[in-house]
C-alpha cells in the first residue's frame, strides 16, 4: 500500500508539473475560462494573472481584519479608488475570522503571488511580525492602516486621526452628556486592536484631569467587532453596573450594537452613548437621541491615503522615514511623521456627527 | 497489502461494489493540484508550495489522534480549547521567568492532562456521550485560558522558539518533517499493532469487545490523553508561528480537524477508515485552500467550496454503507 501510494504521489507531482508547463505555454486568454469543476468557484476580479514581464501592472494588496465589516469595506473601496487612479491592480482580501493566524495565511498567499505592496489593518500588533518581515525581505512594501502592526513589521502606518485627540474628545463628549457625574464604561473591539487600545490609553489620561473627579471608568469590555458579542457585552455592562451612566464605543460595530441594546431596553436618556460610528448605521440612533453625537473620519479617505502611500513606497519616492513628503491625490500633500518607534501619516481630526448634520452624511457612507 | 483486521471481509466486498475511498481521495488530490496549477501561475513553485505547508500543518497534528477517536465512534470537540489553554500557559510561564524549554514541557503536560480529564469523564460517565463531555470541557478549558490571560496577548519569546513555526532542516520546513514522522508513527500504531486492532474492534462493536475481555476503558483513556498531548503539540507550533498568543487562538480548529478526518473516509459510526485517508485529506484541504487563496477567492466562498466537498464525501460514504 505504502509503495503504491508513494508511486502515486510521484505521479501526481509530475502530472501537475506537466499541467503547469502546459498552461504556461498556452495563451493567457484561456485562463479566464471556466475550467473549474467546483461549484461556486468564481474567479475574482484579480484572477487574471499578470505576466512576470516588466510591462505588467503593479499589484497592490489590502488586507482587512475580517469579512462583513461595512467600515472595512469602505476602507478597501477607498484603497481601490486610489490604486485605479494610479493604474495599478488591486487585490482585496479579508479572512472570515478576525484572527492573526488567518491573516498570516493571507500574507503567505500574497507573498506567493509576488505582489508589490501589502496594506494591512491588523488583528494583532505583534503576531504578524514574522510573516510581514518575510514579505519585506522579498522586496514587498508593507504598510499598516487603521489598526497598526508594531514598528518592526511595517514601513509606515496610515493613521486615521490623531489618537490623542480621539481619546480626549470621547471623554469630553461623555462628560457633557452625563453632566460630569457617574460610572462610564468602554465597549471596544478586540483586546488586541492597536488603535482602540491607544485611544483607550488617551481616554484614561484625559480622565486624570481633576475636572472628571466624579466620573469613574468601571470597565473596558471587548465585543471583538462581532455584532452578537458586542450586544451581549453591552447587556453585561448594564447588568453588572446598574449605576452606569455612559458608554463609549470607539468601534463602528460596537456603537451600533450598543445603540440597538439601549433602544430595545428603552434606556434612552438614562444611559448615554458616544464613540466612533458609521453615519449610515447610526443615523436612526442619532435621530432618536439614543446617541446624541459621535465622531468618525471618512474610512474611504483612510483607504485612499493608504493607496497613495503604497504607490509612493513601490515607486521608491518615499521610504517611510520621518520627513518624507508625497502627494495623495484629492487629499493633497501629506508628510510622514514620528509615531513611537515607527512612523505614520495622519489623515486629520475626527469629525463630529450630530442630529444637525447626520441627515446629509448618512447617504455618503 | 491490506492487513487482516476484523473488518477485512466486509471491506473486501465493498471494494467490489465501490472503488476504495482512499483512491478517490488520491484522484481528488490530483484534480486539486492540476486545477490550482492551471488557475494560478504561482502555484507550482517549490518555495511557495513548501511554505504553504507551514500555513496549514499546525492543526494537522490533532488530525492524527482524532482518527483514533473517531474510529472509536467517539468525538472530541475540546481540542481547539486545549490548544488555547496550552498556548496561554506556555506564554504566561515564560513571561514570569520560567525557562522556555521548561515552559514548553509544562504546556505539553497541561495538554496531556486536559486530554486525560476528557478520557476519565468519558469512561466514568458512560451515559454521557463523548460529544457532550468534550462540549463541556471545550467551554471549561477556554474559560481557564481567559481567566489566566484576561483577553490580553502574551509573547516576546526567545528567538530560537521561532524555529518550530518558521524553521527549515535541509530546506524542508521543520513542521513538515515533524508531521510526516508523527503521521508514520500513528499510522503504524493504528494499522500494525494490537492496540490499533483493539481500537477498530471497540469502534465496530463496543459491547462485544467488552465481553471478549478487551480493556475498553483503558484504550479510550489512552486515545483521549494522546489527543490532548497532540493538541498541545499544535499549540507549540501555532504559538511559534505567531510569536504571541491570546486566549482566542485556534478558533474553530476543532471543526476543521473533524472535517479533515471525515473527508479522510473515517466513518463517524466508528470501526472504519484508514490513517492514510486522513493524511491525504489534510493536504487536500490545505492545498485547496491555498490554491483558492492564490487566485483571491473570497473567504466565504472558500468555506462554501470546502463545505460542498464535505457534503459530497459524507453522502458517498453513506451510500457505501447502505450498499453494504
From TrEMBL, chain A:
Residues 60-316 form the Periplasmic binding protein domain. It is found in: Cell envelope. Residues 1-19 form the signal peptide. Residues 25-54 are annotated as: Disordered. Keywords: Signal. Pfam families: Peripla_BP_4 (PF13407). The keyword Signal applies. Residues 25-37 have a biased composition (Polar residues). Transmembrane segments: none annotated. Gene3D superfamilies: 3.40.50.2300. It comes from the Bacteria. Coiled coil: none annotated. This is Rhamnose ABC transporter substrate-binding protein.
From TrEMBL, chain B:
It is found in: Cell membrane. It comes from the Bacteria. It is a multi-pass membrane protein. It holds the Pfam family BPD_transp_2. The chain crosses the membrane at residues 21-44, 100-121, 128-148, 168-190, 219-238, 250-269, 276-295, 301-319. Keywords: Cell inner membrane, Cell membrane, Membrane, Transmembrane, Transmembrane helix, Transport. This is Autoinducer 2 import system permease protein LsrD. It comes from Ferviditalea candida.
Amino acid at each position: 500500500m505504502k509503495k503504491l501510494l508513494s508511486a502515486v504521489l510521484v505521479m501526481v507531482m509530475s502530472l501537475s508539473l506537466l499541467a503547469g508547463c502546459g498552461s504556461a505555454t498556452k495563451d493567457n486568454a484561456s485562463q479566464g475560462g471556466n475550467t473549474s469543476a467546483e461549484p461556486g468557484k468564481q474567479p475574482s476580479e484579480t484572477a487574471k494573472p499578470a505576466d512576470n514581464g516588466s510591462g505588467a501592472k503593479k499589484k497592490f494588496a489590502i488586507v482587512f481584519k475580517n469579512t462583513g465589516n461595512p467600515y472595512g469595506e469602505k476602507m478597501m473601496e477607498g484603497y481601490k479608488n486610489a490604486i485605479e487612479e494610479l493604474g495599478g491592480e488591486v487585490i482585496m482580501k479579508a479572512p472570515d475570522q478576525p484572527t492573526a493566524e488567518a491573516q498570516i495565511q493571507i500574507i503567505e498567499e500574497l507573498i506567493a503571488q509576488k505582489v508589490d505592496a501589502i496594506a494591512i489593518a491588523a488583528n494583532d500588533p505583534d503576531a504578524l511580525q514574522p510573516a510581514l518581515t518575510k514579505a519585506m525581505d522579498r522586496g514587498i512594501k508593507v504598510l499598516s492602516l487603521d489598526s497598526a502592526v508594531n514598528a518592526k513589521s511595517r514601513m509606515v502606518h496610515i493613521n486615521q486621526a490623531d489618537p490623542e485627540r480621539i481619546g480626549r474628545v470621547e471623554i469630553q463628549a461623555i462628560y457633557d452628556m452625563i453632566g460630569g457625574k457617574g460610572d462610564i464604561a468602554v465597549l471596544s473591539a478586540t483586546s488586541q486592536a492597536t488603535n482602540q487600545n491607544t485611544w483607550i490609553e488617551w481616554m484614561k489620561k484625559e480622565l486624570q484631569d481633576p475636572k472628571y473627579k466624579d466620573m469613574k471608568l468601571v470597565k473596558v469590555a471587548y465585543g471583538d467587532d462581532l455584532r452578537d458579542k458586542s450586544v451581549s457585552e453591552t447587556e453585561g455592562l448594564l447588568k453588572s453596573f446598574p449605576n452606569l451612566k455612559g458608554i463609549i464605543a470607539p468601534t463602528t460595530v460596537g456603537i451600533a450594537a450598543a445603540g440597538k441594546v439601549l433602544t430595545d431596553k428603552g434606556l434612552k436618556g438614562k444611559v448615554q452613548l458616544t464613540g466612533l460610528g458609521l453615519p449610515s448605521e447610526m443615523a436612526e440612533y442619532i435621530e432618536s437621541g439614543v446617541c446624541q453625537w459621535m465622531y468618525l473620519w471618512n474610512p474611504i479617505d483612510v483607504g485612499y491615503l493608504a493607496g497613495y502611500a503604497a504607490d509612493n513606497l513601490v515607486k521608491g519616492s518615499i521610504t517611510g522615514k520621518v520627513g518624507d513628503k508625497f502627494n495623495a491625490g484629492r487629499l493633497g500633500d501629506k508628510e510622514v511623521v514620528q509615531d513611537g518607534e515607527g512612523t505614520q501619516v495622519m489623515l486629520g481630526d475626527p469629525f463630529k456627527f450630530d442630529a444637525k448634520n447626520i441627515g446629509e452624511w448618512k447617504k455618503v457612507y | 497489502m491490506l492487513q487482516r483486521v476484523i473488518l477485512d471481509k466486509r471491506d473486501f466486498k465493498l471494494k467490489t461494489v465501490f472503488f476504495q475511498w482512499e483512491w478517490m481521495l488520491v484522484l481528488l488530490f490530483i484534480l486539486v493540484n492540476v486545477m490550482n496549477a492551471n488557475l494560478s501561475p504561482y502555484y507550482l513553485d517549490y518555495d511557495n508550495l513548501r511554505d504553504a505547508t507551514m500555513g496549514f500543518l499546525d492543526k494537522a497534528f490533532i488530525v492524527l489522534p482524532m482518527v483514533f477517536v473517531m474510529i472509536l465512534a467517539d468525538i472530541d470537540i475540546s481540542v481547539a480549547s486545549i490548544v488555547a489553554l496550552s498556548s496561554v500557559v506556555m506564554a504566561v510561564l515564560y513571561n514570569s521567568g520560567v525557562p522556555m524549554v521548561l515552559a514548553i514541557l509544562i504546556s505539553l503536560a497541561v495538554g496531556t492532562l486536559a486530554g486525560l480529564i476528557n478520557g476519565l469523564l468519558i469512561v466514568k460517565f458512560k451515559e454521557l456521550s463523548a460529544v457532550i463531555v468534550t462540549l463541556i470541557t471545550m467551554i471549561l478549558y477556554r474559560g481557564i485560558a481567559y481567566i489566566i490571560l484576561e483577553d490580553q496577548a502574551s509573547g516576546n519569546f526567545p528567538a530560537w522558539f521561532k524555529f518550530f513555526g518558521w524553521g527549515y532542516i535541509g530546506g524542508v520546513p521543520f513542521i513538515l518533517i515533524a508531521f510526516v514522522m508523527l503521521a508514520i508513527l500513528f499510522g503504524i500504531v493504528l494499522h500494525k499493532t494490537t492496540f490499533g486492532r483493539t481500537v477498530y474492534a471497540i469502534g465496530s462493536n463496543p459491547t462485544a469487545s467488552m465481553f471478549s475481555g478487551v480493556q475498553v476503558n483503558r484504550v479510550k483513556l489512552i486515545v483521549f490523553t494522546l489527543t490532548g498531548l497532540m493538541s498541545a503539540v499544535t499549540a507549540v507550533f501555532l504559538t511559534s508561528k505567531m510569536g504571541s498568543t491570546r486566549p482566542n487562538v485556534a478558533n474553530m480548529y476543532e471543526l476543521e480537524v473533524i472535517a479533515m478526518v471525515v473527508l479522510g473516509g473515517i466513518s463517524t459510526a466508528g470501526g472504519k477508515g484508514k490513517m492514510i485517508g486522513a493524511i491525504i485529506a489534510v493536504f487536500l484541504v490545505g492545498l485547496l485552500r491555498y490554491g483558492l487563496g492564490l487566485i483571491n477567492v473570497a473567504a466565504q466562498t472558500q468555506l462554501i467550496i470546502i463545505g460542498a466537498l464535505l457534503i459530497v464525501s459524507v453522502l458517498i460514504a453513506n451510500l457505501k454503507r447502505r450498499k453494504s
